[in-house]
Amino acid sequence: MKNLLFFFLAFAFFCSAESFSQVKRQAENKPFMLKGEVIDGETNMPIAKVNVEILGGQYTTTNLSGRFAISAKIGDELVIKSDDFLTVYYTVAKNDFITVRVEKALGQPAPSVSRSSQDNKQNSFSVYLDSAKYFLKRDAQKSIEYVTRALEPGRNKTISNKENSQAFETLGDINLFWNQPDLAVDNYKRSIQNLSNTDVSIKLAKAFAQNKNYQESISAFQNLLKANLSAYQKVEVHEGLGDTYKAIGDGVKSVFNYQKALDAAKENSITPKITNLNSKIGEAYAESGALSEAEVYFDNSLKLAKKENKQRAVSEKNKVADFYNQNREYEKEIQLREETLEELNTMGKGATVEDEALTSQRQNYKIANAFVAQEKYKQAIPYLEKSIAEADIREDLVVQKDATRKLSEIYRDIGEFDKATESYQRYVEVVDELYVKKEQEISQAARFTKEITLKQNRIVSLENDRKLNESRYKLAFENQELIERNSKIQKWVIISLAIIVLLLFFAAYTQYKNVKQQKFANNVLALKSLRSQMNPHFIFNALNSVNSFIAVNDERAANKYLTDFSLLMRSVLENSEEDFISLEKEIELLELYVKLEHFRFKDKFDYRFSVDKNINLNEFVIPPMLLQPYVENAVWHGLRYKEEKGLLEINFRKIDSKTVKITILDNGIGRAKSEEFKTENQKKQKSKGMGNTQKRIAILNEMYKDKIVVKVENVFENNEGTKVELILKKD
Q1: HSE, side-chain direction, 13 A CA sphere, residue 13
Q2: What is the pLDDT of residue 20?
Q3: Strand order in the sheet with 67-72
Q4: What φ, ψ does residue 623 adopt, rounded to 5°?
Q5: Where is pLDDT greater, at 154 or 184?
Q6: pLDDT for the residue numbered 23
Q7: Strands of 646-656's sheet in order across
Q8: Taking every annotated instance into account, which residue ranges of this chain make up the domain Signal transduction histidine kinase internal region (predicted)?
């Protein structure tokens, strides 16, 4: 009795301690919204539609700005994946904005192309490939070995595009079946490189999804919808899209594509697909919480599955039973699982069942869980005992572990502590045994992966060898052609020499002209260089204004300023590649700039634009951003330091039909006084905007014969105020 009491207290303490530590861990590690961006490591440009996933958790994609937000916890592993770059794994250490730089994946070399074909070679290739397909689901290594033999070079043996495509398609099928989707993607791509094939493209899209490259999968399926598809292919593509959207949690698009696939399957009487799609639509509705709609489709799938083979019917009953469990309709669940058990028994032990859930030990365990959920512990015990016994016979340690622990908990809850202790001890033994088995499986899986990778590399090596041999043959052929070509070249040498003499005379004649054109080109290049310096200088000054609003926490002013600034930037960038723009565009740009500066210094100055109505603004052209530095100087070095409110006037007057005078007039403190306000550092530096503008005008006048004349002078006798006069000629 004392031992029993001690066990009960120890067991209760163990459970309470475990619960307490779990609650503590949960409290310390609450989920938060992790934000970040994905950019190209070389160009620093954002990358859109990148797969972002918390390992074993949520999934999202980057937006057009390369940014994402996903629920995460400290210690979670973030996986950033795309077909265009190497997969990145990032461990979440803190709640902070992260920037992920990615490197582009190296492209795979294209398979070699062979054209000759013989009957004995074709027969051996087909035999080896058929053997590979036979062993595909039985022995992966043997299956890949047969593909290798099919591709091995031999005497008088070459491989055609079609055969290369078939071989790599088979390799992709092997990889996909044995859960190596990354290799499957690579091999399906190689198959398509040799010969475009819609069925292989569908397989590639499915492999993308299985490899969690969901965006690439969606894009591949959507491109396939634009192709000329057969009825069955159309069903497969919509079904694949539904599977992918379901995997990323988009229930609406998932159901939409499943429904389109179902409609096409019904229209073309593709019976197996009709059953599967009813089941998948039911699952999609169930996951999104639409239980009544899910039940309708599950009822349809049950009825249709009964008309097919027993294994299909059993599989569907198991899915519907899981749905009833989710919906807490335990009586219906138990009834379906009882029927499943009966049909599994009638199928016999020799029947092959790929789904682990369709085993008698698993079904007994789930029936017991349904009884436990209703607190019918006595009814659950026999099913757990059956589950444990059958799991022991079939060496299913996972089910045996779960069932043994559940049995121990039931005995504890109903007060049979001896049996609870006995079951718990057995549970510990099974856990130890399972741990050893899992270690062995991990070791075997590592060896299996290594061997498959080596065989894959062997096939790639065969492709490279074949490509090298073909290159040697091509080189020998080209050498022969070169010898023949040399004989012809000798005949043309004398003629060529004569032509060269004539060309020398022509070159001497054109040299003078080229020098002149080169000088003109150098001037154009200098203008472009100066213009490229103007835009960063202008942007930097404008952003300083934005920064000042942010510094004083004037968010509304900053937002309004940024809106107008974006319009100005758009105009600046649109004109940045033009040597000249119309005077009308320059005035529009200048008005927008002055509006922004007035918004910044509205208490310092007013402004007034005056444009002569007689000027045809579209007939006159002007280099972009030529007037802005003069206006900027007037505001920043004249009006900004004035104690009372100043005035800025910008006038455009027509002198004659070919000449316009532009006047920029301010009543600021003047150039001399502005020089006194400068710091020592500012005095050492010359204004880049004004300096570049003067250089541009000098070059333009040299190229176009005094097209622009500029004069700067003081307005008042006390050296205050500044007037800039600029004469612009039409031609």
Answers
A1: 6
A2: 44
A3: 67-72, 32-40, 98-102
A4: -60, 135
A5: 184
A6: 46
A7: 605-611, 646-656, 659-666, 722-729, 708-714
A8: 527-605
Query: How far is the C-alpha of 48 from the C-alpha of 38, rounded, in Å?
Result: 8
Structure tokens at 417: 């502590």
- Cα separation, 367 vs 387, in Å, equals 10
pLDDT at 40 > cutoff 70: yes
**Which of left, alpha, beta for 591 (phi over 0: left; psi -120 to 50: alpha)?**
alpha
Are 82 and 88 in contact by the 8 Å Cβ rule? The answer is no
What's the CA gap between 323 and 446, in Å, rounded?
36
Is residue 417 exposed (0-12), middle (13-18) or buried (19+ Cβ within 10 Å)?
A: middle
Confidence of residue 62 (pLDDT cuts 50, 70, 90): very high
Please report, for the chain, how many H helices and E strands are present, in that order.
23, 14
The answer to whether 236 and 206 are in contact (CB under 8 A) is: no
What is the secondary structure of 105-144 as a DSSP string?
Answer: PPPPPPPP------HHHHHHHHHHHHHHHHTTTT-HHHHH
Q: Taken in order 343, 345, 350, 355, is the CA torsion positive or negative? A: positive
Distance CA 182, CA 83 (A): 10
| HEC string for 673-685 | HHHHHCCHHHHHC
Q: What is the dihedral of CA 725, 728, 729, 730, to 10 degrees?
A: -150
Residues β-bridged to residue 608: 649
Q: What are the C-alpha distances in Å from 629 to residues 106, 499, 514, 547?
A: 47, 55, 35, 20
* C-alpha–C-alpha distance, residues 326 and 324, integer Å: 5
Terminal-residue alpha carbon distance, the chain: 114
* C-alpha to C-alpha distance for 620 and 363, rounded to whole angstroms: 87
Tokens of 666: 């301010």
Q: Which long-range contacts (CB under 8 A, 24 or more apart) does 277-283 make?
A: 277/235, 277/239, 278/304, 279/305, 279/316, 279/319, 280/239, 280/242, 280/243, 280/246, 281/255, 282/319, 282/320, 282/323, 283/246, 283/319, 283/323
Position 72, amino acid: A
Q: Minimum mean pLDDT among 101-105, 321-325, 380-384: which range?
A: 101-105
∠ CA 662-666-671 to the nearest 5 degrees?
105
Which 3 state secondary structure label does DSSP give 56? coil
pLDDT of residue 107: 45
Question: By 3-state DSSP, what share of the chain in percent is helix, strand and coil, each rounded to 5?
Answer: 65, 10, 25
Query: At 238, is the secondary structure helix, strand, or coil?
Result: helix
Range with the lowest mean pLDDT among 104-108, 378-382, 404-408?
A: 104-108
Q: What is the CA radius of gyration of the chain?
A: 39
Question: What's the token pair of residue 208?
Answer: 């993308």
3-state secondary structure of 175: helix
What pLDDT sits at residue 220? 92
Residue 574's closest CA among 560, 588, 561, 563? 588
Mean pLDDT confidence for 97-109: 71
Q: What is the pLDDT of residues 658-667, one digit of tens each?
A: 899 999 999 8
Average pLDDT, the chain: 79
- Name the CA dihedral angle for 455, 456, 457, 462, rounded to a multiple of 10 degrees: 90
Cα–Cα dist 542/549, whole Å: 11
Instruction: Round to whole Å and give the CA distance between 256 and 271.
Output: 20
